[in-house]
Structure formats: structure tokens, C-alpha cells
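Annual report, structural modelling task.

Input specification for the V47 complex:
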Amino acid sequence: MNAPAVAAPSVLETFAMSDPSLETIREKVLAGRRLSFDDGVALYRTHDLLGLGRLANHVREARHGDIAYFVCNTHLNHTNVCAATCNFCAFAAKTGEPRAYVMSLDQVFADVAKQPKACREVHIVGGLHPDLPFQYFIDMMKGIKQIRPDMHVKAFTAVEIFFFHKLYKKSVPEILQTLKDAGMDSMPGGGAEIFAKETRDKIIKGKANGEQWLDVARQAHKLGIPSNCTMLYGHIETVEDRVDHLIQLRDLQDETNGFVTFIPLAFQPWEAPAMKLPETTGFEDLKAIAVSRLMLDNIPHIKSYWIMIGPRVAQIGLSFGADDLDGTVTEERVAHDAGAPTSQSLSVDELCRLIREAGRRPVERDTVFNTIKEW
Ligand code: V47
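The model returned the following structure:
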């Protein structure tokens, strides 16, 4: 007589963590229970990278199976003139400096018009320019939609929106609604950096604080504008700062459910003016991805951003919790002005090769993860 079929235990159930302090976390992950602040700290502190990666991969595969996403996109940075002073930023310039620039709207539109038909998303981020009129941004949104009605406009970080609110003396919801009506479809996740006040105050002057960043995201979500979120790591922040940052994002997501993707941003140190720090290591980059996948149980997607960690580590990130590689990108300036050694763009073939060799299935998506094509 045949023995009754018994479901085979999952790899995770039979897999002992080499770091015993992760055992209780493994049990929580298997049971689908939320991780605590102390769990987050333990995950960041472990040297059991493979154990951590296996936990994050378990969550990633439960959500997304073997799919790895990418988008055909382009970046547009209309100005680098910025009223804020961030020690980590090499992109910003002050008016009058030789490298300061502002794109005219005709230049913006020419840039959009030259994009191939396959390009689905324009990612727009600029410095906090103190002299541009609000109409410039409204006309920018309207003009882009006229040229490419099919292109998703992911524009203006929460920091920029907060700056507009102060400069143009309009409420945050009014700024957001006006830009939405003009064509802004969603918002990128930049400017979050690290929320912890003591650390943030040491590296940032003159832009939205953590609470203000989160409140702009809250207001955007209430108006039906989805957004991404980020964390800048690998500078002077502590492990506790990182976990606090993730939990603040998770709390807001419980309230609004408006975040689409979390992107850990590895500090690019080479040209950063006021910080003499080394680049992040592969261990740190993979941990940033894995810990975020485990802590952010309510944010659907985790991005392995090849521009900042390089295509090789980004590819491995697809086995450590990430389900998305961002995209073709083209003409990125924030990381490259800071000396990022990565190329300016990857082709669809290159992205698909990275994904396939990682044992994943490439799926081209739009900004909000509707499937465009399975490659
Ligand atoms: O806002 C600035 C950060 C952000 C440096 O939402 C730096 O889909 C590292 O937010 N080293 C811009 N980071 C990038 C960004 C982003 C990228 C890709 C996708 C999405 C998305 C968002 O980069 C800035 C700032 O937080 N930054 N300087 C630096 N030296």
C-alpha cells in the first residue's frame, strides 16, 4: 500500500541558520509574521549573508515567483540649481557656478520627443531652483503629455513638492492636484535619504525633514498619486537609523498603501564634495536589499538599482529579495555626477541576459507594474 502523500517541507523549514540569533526571525518569516525593530537590527548585524538572502528570497518568490521586472525608461533632470545643501550630493550647483544649468521647456520637449516609441516612462527630478515659476512645471507636464500621451510621467520627489509648497505659497495638496491635472502620473522616491533627525541634520541643510517628506507622500497617496520610496545608505547612518527609516515607511504604507517600490540607494562617494567615505561593499548592498524585503512586508516591489550598485551585484540582488532591476535608464545624472562607474544605459537585451542568467523570467513592465511584455 502506498504511504499517504506528505507535502515536502520547504527549503526554509529544513534550513538551519548559521547565525542562531536569526532562528526566531526565520520562524516569524515562515509564519508570515511582521518583524520588529530588534529583528531589523539583528538582520543588519548578521554575517550570515546566505541565510539572510534565503529568508528574503523566500518572501520574494512567494510574492513574485520567478519573475524579474524591468522598464524601458529615461531620466530627465531639468535643472541642477539647488537651494539645499546636501553633503552627499555632487549633482547640485548654485546659480552662477559654471556647471549650473536650467533646461528650457523646448529642450525638455526635444529630449522627450527623441525617445524611442518603446520608452514608457520619463523619470523627472531636479534641484530646488529658487527662481523658476510654478507655471514652468505645469507647462512641462502638459507639454510632455501632448508629445507623448502614452508616456508615464514619474516626476518630482516629495522634497521638490515640499519646496514648491513653500516657494509658491500653496498647500501641498494644491500643488499635487495641479501637477496631477497637468499630467504628473506618479512620483519618484528620492530625497528620503535617512529620516533620523540627528543624522539627517548632519548631512542635509535647507530641504524637507523626514516628517515633511512622509507627509507629502501621505498627501500624494490620498489624491491617488502613487509614489516610490528610497533610503540612502552607506554614509554616516547607523544600523538603528536604517531600521527606523524602514519602519517609518512601513507605518505610512499601512495607512495609505500608496508606495509601489522601495529602492535602497547606495551612497556614491567619488565626487561627493563634503564626505570622505569609501564606496559601499557587495555585502552591504545585498543586505540592504534583503533586509528591506523582509521588513517592508507591505510594499510590493524592491528594486535592485544597477546604476548605483553595478549590474553584477544588482543581478545577484534578484536572489536576495529584489524583483526589479529598474530599467534601461539613459542619461542618469545624480549618480554619475557623483562619479558612479556604471554605464549610462543598459539595453533590453542586456537586462534580459542578466535576468535569465539569474534563473528569472524577464517581464517588461510600466511604472505601476502592469505587464507590457514577457521576454
Ligand atoms: O534624491 C543624491 C540620491 C536620489 C547621491 O523612484 C544619491 O523609481 C547616492 O531617487 N549617492 C535620486 N545617492 C535617485 C532616486 C531614484 C533612482 C532610481 C529610481 C527611483 C524611483 C528613484 O539619489 C536623490 C538622492 O536621494 N542621491 N546624491 C549620491 N552621491
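The mean pLDDT is 94.
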